[in-house]
Structure formats: C-alpha cells, structure tokens
Amino acid sequence: MKINGATLTGTTKVSLFKGRYKYIYGVNGGGRGVRWSGEGDAEPIGVQAPTVALTMSTTASTANIVAAIQVVASGSGFFQPPTVTFSGGGLTAGDARHAQGLARLKNGGVGNIVITKTGSGYTSRPQIALSGGRGTGATVTVGVDGSLGAVIPTNSGSGYTNGATISFSGGGLVDAIGEVDITDGRVSGVRIVNPGSGATTTSTATIYAVSGGTSASARCIMSYAVTALTVTGGTGFAATVPVTFSSISGSGAAAYCNAAASTAPGVPVDPVITSRGAYFVKPTASVLGTPARAESLIRAPMRGSYRCGYRYVDNTPISEGGPIPSSLSELVTIEAGEGASAFVWNWANTGADARAAAVELWRTSANQAVVLYRVALLERAGGVLHSTYADTIDEATLIDSTRDGYALMPITLPSGQLNAYRFSTPPTDMQDACWFQDRAWYGANTNGTRPNSLLFSEIDEPESVADVNEVVIQNNTGSQDRVVAIIPYGAILIVAQERHMYRLTYVSQPVIDAAITLAGYRGLLNKRCWTTFEGGLYCVDSFGMYAFDGSSMEPLSVAVDDYWRDGIIDFSKSANFFVQADPGSRVIRFHYCKSSDGTTPTRALCYSLATKTWWEETTPQALGSAAVLNIGGKQSLVYGTSGGSIVKATTSTVDMFSGSTAIPYEFRSGPLTITDEPTRQIGVLYKPTATTSDLTLRVHYNNSATYRPNAVDSDRGDGAVASPAGVVIDMRTARSALGDSTGYSTARYSGRANDRSAGADRHVAVNLSGTQTSSPIVLHGVTIGGVTA
After folding, report:
1. Residue 444 located in a structural domain
2. One domain for residues 392 and 327
3. N or C: which terminal CB in the chain sees fewer CB atoms within 10 Å?
C-alpha cells in the first residue's frame, strides 16, 4: 500500500478503525489521516473545502419568463384536466420558447395550473387557452315529482265564523289535502295534511266557506324532487360524466351518466340519480359545465438577492456511502435588482486535493438564505477541475424537484445545527480514533491545545467532522489530566486519561444528550496499553496492570509490582509500549523496555488468565505491535517487527512485505534456587519438527546476564549434544535411523551449592534459543531438577 497525496507525520502510532462500509481509516495526530479500501493506494480522509470564494456577475435580461399562473375562473364539468396552451407575449405560435403548464382539477373545475416550463423571451404577458377535458353538444331534460311544500294565505278574508275548506287543482298535483285555520272569522293559516304528488308545475289553491265568509285566498309553494333525466346527443365525453343541476331556489340533486357504456363512444347515456334533492323552483340540468380562464404573470429569469457557494465531491460510489463532499465555500451574495438572464460563476481551485473529482455549484432561490439548490455538478475534464460556469436556470426550474441534477441542502438544520458546513475533514491533532455506534470518534490531542476534547463525525460519515461536534471531559481543579485513548466497549465508549477512566454514552446526538461519568481512578500509559479478551478489558498504567469491566477495577500485577516500583521499566520509552491478549494461550502480554534496551520492546511481562501467574519473555527482534487475526478460520496472534515484517507465533514464518525469512526466538526462565540434590538435570518436552531445528540450552548463574560455558553437558544419544556454547537439541523427527524422536531430551548441569562458601552458586536460570524456519517450534514444557521455585 502506498499513500496517494496523504501524509502522516510525527512519531505516534497510527490508530486504525473500520466504518460502516469497506474503508479502513488511520490517524496519528500528524495530519488529517488516511483512508484505504484494502487494495490499491491510500488517500487522505475527507475532502478539503474550497479556500477561495466565488466571484459572481450577471447578464442583463431583455426578455422574461412566466413566473406564475392565476386561475380567474375554475369552470365546471371537467372530467379530465384541459390542455394548457400559451400564445402571444412577443413569440410566434409554435415557438419552442413558449411556456408549458399542467392543469389540475378540483371539484370538477380547474383548481390550479402548475408551470412545467417557464418559457423565455417574453416581452409581454402571453395568453393562456384551456381546451378539452369536457364533452360538448349534450342536452338534459329533467323530470320532477312535485308536492306541496307550503300554502301561504294571500288574503285572510272575513266572516268565516263557521270555518272554511281548501282544495288544490292544476299542475298535475293529486291527493293533496289541507286544513284551514280561522281566527276571529279570518283565515290565519293553512296546514298541509297530505302534500300530494305528481305535480310538474305550480298548483292553485281555492278556499271555500262552510257558511258565510268571503274573499280569502292562498298561494301554493311547491317542492320538486328530481325523478327522471333524459340526455340527448353529445360527443367527446369520457367515463363517468357528472350532471350539474341549477335552480333559483333549492338544492341537493345529484346524478351522473356513463359515457363509456354507450354504443357510440363519447355519448353520455344511462343517467343515474343518486340524490333527488328538494327545489321550490323546478331545476334545470346540464352535462356541459362552464369554461375555465387563467392569466399569466411574467418577470425576469433571475430577480432579487441570491446566496451562492461551491464545494468539491469525490468519486466514492453511492453503494459505499459516497460521493463524499467537502464543506461549502464561503457564501457570496449576488443582486439581480432589475432582473438578469444569467449568472456567471468564477472560482479558483487553489488547494483542491487529489480526491476532488467534481465541483458542485449551489445557490438559494431569490431573497432567502435558508435552503440551497444545486445548480450544476461539473466533473473533471481532462484531469482538470472546472473554474467557470454560465448559469441560466430560472427561479421555477431551480426549485423544481423533477429537474435533472436537482438537489437541495438546508444551510442549517431545523435544530440550528450546521448542515452545509458539517463536512469538515477530521482534526489533524488527534492521535486516537475508533468507530462507536454510528459515528467515528477522535481524541488524544497531540499539541496540548485541547487535551480533554473528543470530536465525533456525522452519522455514518467518518470523514465529516464539524468543529462544533465536540465533547469535553471536565477535570476537577487542581487535578489536570489528559485523554490518551478512546475505547469502544459494548454499549459505552471508555475515555481513558493517564490517571482516570470515564464512561460516555449517548442516544442520538452527542452534543445534546451525551452522558459522561467517572468510572475509576486509573488510566493508561498510552493508547495501545489496553486489550480486550472474553469481554474483559486489560489495561496498563504507571502503577501496573489491572482488569476493568466498565465499572470496577481489579489489580493484577501485585506479584510483579517491583517492575513498576523499582524502576525496572523504563517509562521514558513508554510511547512504544503495548498490551495484547493471546487467545490461544489465554495470556496477556505487556511489551515494555528496560533502560538497557532500545526504544522498541524486545521483552514482555506475561500474565496467564488460566493460572494467575506471571513470567517474562524476551524476543530477539524488537516488536512494535500485535494483533489477533482470523487466519485459516482460527484466531491467531501476529506481531509486527521493527524490521517491517509480520510474523505469527508458533507457525512458519509469515512475512507479508519482504518474503520469508527465518525467525530467531529465545526464552529465559526466572532465577531458581539451587539445592544440594545431586540430580541436576534439565528436561525439554517438545513437538518433533519435520526438518532440522536446533534448540540451544544454556544456563545462567546468580542472575548473570551471560551464560556459563561448559556448564551443561549431555551426549547420550537422545538428541542432546554438548558443545562449548551449550547443549544443542536436534528436534527433528527422523534424526536417527533407529526410529523417530519422542520429543523429550534431557541434559545435566553443574553448580556449587555450598552455603558456607562465598563462591557458591545460589541461583540458576535456563535459557532456550533457536531459529524457526519452515517447521513450527512448539515447546510443551521444561523441567529443572535440583532447584526450588
């Protein structure tokens, strides 16, 4: 992998994390970090925002567009939207510059007309014609059934002391019955006992005296219900055709015809009455409706105040969360007071990085500064980014969601948070990062300007980290500390300082609902001095190793506290220390340096989770890092050496960069007390190898750093051969013609164990070393006789 245009400086180690998609991200506080897809070149994280503002100019307008359409009469009887046609306005018929519109119906009339094309070149208002959508030529005859609605006295008369009667005649009314009310010999009212039926016109009422009384009269008020419809002729109707009723008094009738069922298509037939209504005056009916009318309003294509900006986007596929945009440039304002026909955009691509694959232009609609609309997406041409553009998109087209290339972007969200400027690249001064829940988190400041700040990305956008996306860990006065690592741990994010641990949780928006609580008074040496295994977190700080479950801490290194207490560990080199769990052996290793070592660890303090015991291991090569990988379906521990190779413990060499090389190894036991027991023998239990693999056994007395020559002697035919440098054990399976090796060899060692002698040997340590080539080296155990632990 090589880095294309991305640089990381400084001496801190790179922190890696993987986002929602396939990309791996790396930061170390020495730049904005790198993104890698797993193949090919790496590239910088995010896309840098433009550093140079736009310059804008306008082209004066001499022609107008249709800006709005006003429906002045909605009409009636429309069964489908009429065709909208523009004419005049300074353009000839058929001119392609004419506007276009789409009528929408409401309750059988034209409710509104949507402009689908604003047109151009108008010097005056064009006329609008609405045609079609209604049938023609049909007539409707209405049949009614009338009855008495009311009888009103028109003259009360006099002398009706013995009462009066009333009768009804004419208009086709039958069976109507009424009673006359008399007050003081005069007719005071008429009550309808039976309204009758069958009337098609107004009936006449006649009042008769029983004996005596004259001059009384009354008028009939009729009530008509629609009982029959006859439709004659008509063409151009479609499907269900509504019938429209009209009358100077009354309402409620409803009916329709079915033009689709006609033997002559387009002719309305088979009227169906769905409501008879009630009318005092016989209604008329029609299936034609009334015409609709509309008028246009024109203006210049651009008029008012506009806010404009641009940004860069890369070519990350949509399926991988792209394209990734930059933050918007500084917005500039362009005024089109008397109207303009075009905007001319100019900008400089100074500082645009290699990831910028295209330029996006954005502007607001007139006289608002809330929402931006995309004007254009200009991809690189010949490897060069565009730097000028002629914008002729009028107001209506700009905000039309059906336009090719349409997009909108609020400048700020309804919550008041940034939107157009939230695509900032990650911070360059944070050396640790991780993926927690749905965001990337950045922390562990490198320059001391914000030692307890955490920055977080937008949701599922690890490359977008606005400056306002910040959470600060508060320190108590007089107890200053700094964040050294951030650790995703189940449902919480652990924020580790040098001397404190915090728990961070949030629901949806960390700026608003993040909760931070103190979890313990221990911390970490650096961002790599922790590891997880089987749900537990194992950490090392300046006081030792401890286990942490998110709320409680358990010290583990009490047995070897002298390493921390007595200065055995050289903390001046702690930047290169790291902790790693080995899932195969269930061992936690703390890789560290002594003062006599180089700056990269060649030794490790090892803690067995199974036996709760400690020991020390040394390696012939400096190890800079470790990780657990899935190799062949098995979780395996691999190391990165100071030479740049990657090796896997207990297997053949794996060097992913420079080919296969032999791997030296070495093990030295702790000092063991020598006893007077005469049987001093060292036994090695191993797995026989397929090829020659020599294991050299040496002994060190009294904590000496050098081994004692000729102190180990064995040459008895079981694979242990004495030499001045020590005993060499050939672990090869077929080392003898007499049969395969059993995997166990012994050798004797010497030593003076006289307690009364000043020159006596008090302690002995066993050293095993060799080189692994093609066959894996597996040592099951070492037994040492003549000593006590």
Report:
1. no
2. yes
3. C
Torsional sign, CA 619, 622, 624, 628: negative
Same domain, 616 and 670: no
Quick check: pTM over 0.85? no
Per DSSP, 392 falls in state: -
Same domain, 609 and 718: no
Predicted confidence (pLDDT) per residue in 543-588, tens digit: 999 999 988 999 999 999 999 999 999 999 999 999 999 998 899 9
Tokens of 205: 């009422």
Q: Which residue, among 647, 634, 620, 582, has the nearest Cα to 770 in the 3D structure?
A: 620
The confidence score (pLDDT) of residue 344 equals 95
Residue found by looking up tokens 């650790």 in the block = 487
The first and second tokens of residue 608, run together, are 């067995």
Query: Do 534 and 607 lie in a common domain?
Result: yes
Predicted pLDDT of residue 185:
92
Asked if residue 537 belongs to a domain, the reply is yes
Q: Please, what is the end-to-end C-alpha distance for the chain in angstroms?
A: 50
CA distance 274 to 284: 16
* Helix %, strand %, coil % of the chain (to 5): 5, 50, 45
763 and 667 inside one domain = yes
Radius of gyration of the chain (CA): 48
Output the six-digit token pair for 778.
């597996």
Q: Are 333 and 305 within 8 A, CB to CB? A: yes
Regarding whether 369 and 309 lie in a shared domain, the answer is yes
The stretches of 346-487 forming alpha helices (DSSP H) are 395-398
Q: Say yes or no: 687 and 748 in one domain.
A: yes
Provide DSSP, 50-89: PSS--EEEEEE-SSBEEEEEEEEE--S--SSPPEEEEEBT
Residue range(s) defining the domain that contains residue 532 = 528-626
